């Protein structure tokens, strides 16, 4: 096996690992962001209710 072939194989393997990692981060990161936004929305509704009660 020559060095050129070795580096080509290494390059392809690293690119495959990078692509899989990018996909996993995108999918699980999107789920995490949805969960965070949902929690912030619920917290915001709770705070908005508290602000209305203080004004009245």
**How much strand content do the residues show?**
under 5%
- By DSSP, the count of extended strands is 0
Average pLDDT, to the nearest integer?
A: 86
> What is the molecular shape?
rod-shaped
Q: What is the helix content? A: over 70%
State the major sheet.
Answer: none
State the order of secondary-structure elements, H for helix, E for strand: H
What is the helix tally? 1
Distance between the termini: 81 Å
How large is the radius of gyration? 24 Å
- Structural class computed from helices and strand pairing: mainly alpha
Poorly predicted runs of 5 or more residues: none
The oligomeric status of these chains comes to single chain
List the helices and strands and how they pair.
Blueprint: H1 3-55
Descriptive overview:
The protein is mainly alpha-helical and 56 residues long. Helices cover 95% and strands 0% of the residues. The protein is built from one helix and no strands. It has one helix at 3-55. It is rod-shaped. The termini are far apart.
Supply database-style keywords.
mainly alpha; 56 residues; 95% helix; 1 helix; rod-shaped
Summarize the structure.
This protein is mainly α and 56 residues long. It contains one helix and no strands.
